[in-house]
Specification:
By secondary structure, the chain is mainly α. It has two domains: 1-208, Preprotein translocase SecY subunit (Orthogonal Bundle), CATH 1.10.3370; 210-398, SecY subunit domain (Preprotein translocase SecY subunit, Orthogonal Bundle), CATH 1.10.3370.10. 73% of the residues lie in helices and 6% in strands. It is built from 18 helices and five strands. It has helices spanning 2-10, 12-31, 41-50, 59-67, 82-97, 99-105, 109-139, 153-180, 185-208, 212-238, 274-282, 284-293, 296-303, 308-329, 332-341, 353-388, 392-395, 400-440; strands at 240-247, 249-252, 255-258, 261-267, 344-345. A three-stranded antiparallel beta sheet has the order 4-1-5. A hairpin with a 2-residue loop joins strand 2 (249-252) and strand 3. It starts with a helix and ends with a helix. Mean pLDDT is 79; it is low at 53-57 and 426-441.
């Protein structure tokens, strides 16, 4: 590891990109300490302490875990990049369901550029809606007492404008990281927000724990569980089902073209974190319905995170959304037609309909393994919370969307750094090879 870091810092271009990335992330973290106008700072800190262990029990908890935001802090960047993520998911679904958008996405870089531009335009109304939701649900709530004065229309517009401007500025930071820094900018911002909550969660657990001696043993046990979880996530994330592909041979005169053998990679966790997000969001509907109608038994039923009914429905929805997402974005018929058009085939499988049926069967089996993995990762924090009596803000880093996002972004960052170093070595090798050849001559 020290040698790898030294190699990165030794390359001037990579060193500059790393420093730019760190500087922009520092600006992002600095904006998370700028409070919104008209709020009582002491009440904000009390509310943050109160909300610390609620985790994914609320819609704000899901938004925080998914986007790395911190809505309960009521700062300039409280929404994070959640509006942009919501718009991106919406356009991802529209591209697969609207024929005109699907045709536009197949035009290459120009079509993707238009879709990205429309996604940014859609981010603004989504951000305004979510900012208004935060205003009504958190800031303007009289029970929380966050406002310094009586809520007014002008103050509401100011808060909504500040939250919207903060999100747009975060998108600009993400674009600058993608263009001039290292890694995907939006993903880096999300990862920074998630990782930043871990020290405060551990410190909060230290302060509230009655037995200080047992805290060290708990931290060691949590660290062991976290290391094991990360190792399994890395293994599954990198896992692939490689379908062999044979290219047809072409004979022209005395020369034979083609005939290469390669493979079609199908990731085990093809759906990523989306099934957990959709399942967690739908689980808020019964709680909201119980709150509005007064059915406390229904709310108690869905708040039992380790109960049989809760786990059965939660795992069932994860499996459903895993198959839904993979079926939507991995289309065996289209892949089979593309293979047939380019003169490739799967050995032992006839091109066309037979190939599509074979790929569909492979997808079903791979998705089954991926959905089972996501289910275990999703329910792990619930069992650790109930078994060790620890707040969800601490155990959320052992599973769920947080650790999946952090590990996924970290692996992508490592791959991009390795690609930069490999390209650098290739350039040095070619220059060295040219000089060696001239000296030999």
């Amino acid at each position: 590891m020290p040698n790898a870091v030294a190699t990165l810092l030794r390359v001037p271009e990579l060193r500059r990109k790393i420093w730019i990335t760190l500087a922009l992330l520092f600006v992002y973290r600095l904006g998370n300490h700028i409070p919104l106008p008209g709020l009582e700072l002491s009440r904000i800190q009390e509310m943050a302490e109160k909300w610390g262990g609620r985790g994914a029990a609320t819609l704000f908890g899901i938004m925080n875990m998914f986007s790395g935001a911190s809505i309960e802090d009521c700062t300039l960047f409280s929404l994070g990049v959640m509006p942009y993520i919501s718009a991106s998911i919406m356009f991802s679904l529209l591209v697969k369901t609207v024929p005109s958008l699907e045709a536009l996405s197949k035009e290459g870089a120009s079509g993707q550029k238009k879709i990205n531009r429309w996604t940014r335009y859609a981010t603004v109304p989504v951000c305004i809606f979510q900012a208004f939701f935060v205003w009504r649900g958190v800031i303007a709530d009289p029970e929380k007492g966050i406002l310094q004065s009586v809520p007014s229309f002008g103050l509401m517009l100011t808060v909504i404008f500040a939250l919207t401007a903060g999100t747009i500025f975060l998108l600009w930071i993400g674009e600058q990281i993608s263009e001039h820094g290292v890694g995907n900018g939006v993903s880096m911002v999300i990862m920074a927000g998630i990782v930043d909550r871990l020290p405060s969660a551990l410190l909060r657990y230290w302060r509230t724990s009655p037995e200080k001696d047992a805290v060290y043993q708990t931290f060691l046990l949590l660290g062991a569980i976290w290391v094991l979880t990360v190792l399994v996530i890395v293994l599954i994330t990198k896992g692939q089902r490689r379908v062999p592909i044979q290219q047809a041979k072409l004979t022209r005169g005395t020369r034979v073209y083609g005939g290469q053998r390669h493979y079609l990679p199908i990731k085990v966790n093809l759906a990523g974190v989306m099934p957990i997000i959709f399942a967690s969001a739908l689980f808020l509907v019964p709680n909201l319905f119980a709150t509005l109608t007064g059915f406390t038994w229904l709310q108690d039923l869905f708040n039992r995170s380790t109960g049989f009914i809760y786990l059965t429905l939660y795992v069932g929805m994860i499996f459903f959304f895993s198959y839904f997402w993979n079926t939507l974005f991995f289309q065996p018929n289209e892949i089979a037609n593309n293979l047939k058009e380019y003169g490739s085939f799967i050995p032992g499988i006839r091109p066309g309909r037979r190939t599509a049926e074979y790929l569909e069967g492979v997808l079903v089996r791979v998705t089954l393994a991926g959905a089972a993995f996501l289910s275990v990762v999703a329910v792990l924090p619930n069992f650790v919370t109930d078994g060790m009596n620890i707040g969800y803000d601490v155990t959320a880093f052992l599973g769920g969307t947080s650790v999946l996002i952090v590990v996924g972004v970290a692996l992508d960052l490592v791959d991009k750094l390795n690609a930069q170093l490999l390209m650098r070595n290739y350039e040095g090798f070619l220059r060295g090879g040219g000089g060696w050849t001239r000296s030999r001559r």
